Amino acid sequence: MLRATPQSAQIVIIEDSATVRDMLAHIIRDEGYHVATYTTAVDGLKYLQSSPPPRLILLDRVLPYMSSDEFLQALQTEPSLSAIPVVMISTYVYEELAPLPYTVGYLEKPIAIDDLMQVVRRYCD
User: Fold this and answer.
1) What is the CA angle 77-116-63, rounded to 5?
2) CB 10 within 8 A of CB 101
3) Nearest to 100 by CA among 87, 110, 118
4) Residue 98, class by beta-carbon neighbours within 10 Å (0-12 exposed, 13-18 middle, 19+ buried)?
5) CA 44 to chain CA centroid, nearest Å
6) What pTM was estimated for this model as a whole?
């Protein structure tokens, strides 16, 4: 059953690895959520600036052209985007998996499906 209604959650995935991006989108879509995917933070930011805000952003830590830190700073300069929850995804382990500035959480690759869906449900249901 698809939850794609005007009131439904939307998740934006910004991930440069096609394999990871497509896998995450497939899992989340199978659970009935609307997903928009982008290879670069530049493209993701353009989408966010021209669309209604999503309920959640899944952001790869290491990206080409615009770093995840630059993306997070850009979000903070726009009032309509600054409150969107951002969960960082990466193969790198950060200090006790503590959230980075402007993020609400962290998922370590390879991402467990249960962990992914727990985050999605927390912010989108």
Assistant:
1) 45
2) no
3) 87
4) exposed
5) 10
6) 0.89
